[in-house]
C-alpha cells in the first residue's frame, strides 16, 4: 500500500454517529487524499491477481454532468479514503480512472446513475463493474416474491433494514438540510468534522451490506444485477454512438442449471421527447409513468431538473421496453 497522509477518525457521541450503536461496525480510520500517491497501490494499479471490493460514492454541487464533483469516497475493509477533487484537481480523479473502469475492482454503491454521469462528462470515466445496492435490494425482494423490481429503496431505509445493517441514519437528513441552505456545502475547505462524518458514513457500511446481499442473491439474480448495474452506469451518459465505446454487458453465466428460468436480458432505451411534450409523458402527478410501470415490467427514469430534460430512460426486458415506448409515444401524439 502506498504511503498516505492519515488522520484518526474521532467518532462523535452516539447521538451523532449511528455506527457507535453497532459494535460490529466500528468507525474506521479515514484518509484525506489530495495526491494519487496517497491511495493504495492495489487501487491505482488494478490486477487480476489482487481483486478488490470497495464501497464507493461521490459528493458534489448539483452532482450530474454539469455539476461539480467535490469528494469521491472509497471504503476499503481497513479504512475510508476521501478523495478531494477540489484540492487534488482533475489529475487526482483521472489517476483513479483505471480503477473505476476496471473489471478487477468491484465498486459497491447505492444508485450510481448521477455519480456515473458526473464522472463521464467531467472526467471521461466510464464507471464499470458496479454492484448497485439499490438494484440488489429490489432483486432480492422480487426473488422472495415481495416486491416488483422497480421499487427503489433509499439508502437511509436500506441501512435501517435489519437484514443488512439495522442502523438509523438521522444525520443524512441533517446534511440534506444544510445542502438546502447552502448548495455549495461540499466545496467548503478544510473539511469540517461533520463533512468527514457524512462522507464516511455514506460508504463505510457498504461492504457489510454487500456481503449480506451476495449471500441472498441467486445465480440468475446476480447476473441480472450485473447487467442492470451496467445499465444504471450508462443511463444518463447518453452519447452519439449508442454506448459503443462502453464495456459489453455481462453474458448469461454458463453455470446456471438447465432447469432454471433465465429471464430476457435487460436493455436501456433512450426515448427523445419533443419540446413541450414531457408533461404528457409524465402525466398528472406522474400518472402516465405509473400506468406504464404497472403495464410493463420496466424502470423509467427522467432527468428532471438536473437533466437531460428532453429524454426518458427505460430499462427492462426488450419486449417490455418496446411496449413502454409505444405507450409513451402514443401520449406524445395526443393533443
UniProtKB/TrEMBL annotation:
Q: What is the lineage of its organism?
A: Eukaryota, Viridiplantae, Streptophyta, Embryophyta, Tracheophyta
Q: Which CDD domains match?
A: Egl_like_exo, KH-I
Give positions of region: Disordered: 1-31
Gene3D superfamilies linked: K Homology domain, type 1, Ribonuclease H-like superfamily/Ribonuclease H
Q: What are the recorded Gene Ontology BP terms?
A: nucleobase-containing compound metabolic process
Pfam families per record: DNA_pol_A_exo1, KH_1
Q: Tell me the protein's name.
A: Uncharacterized protein
> What organism is this sequence from?
Panicum virgatum
Q: Does this UniProt record's set of keywords contain RNA-binding?
A: yes
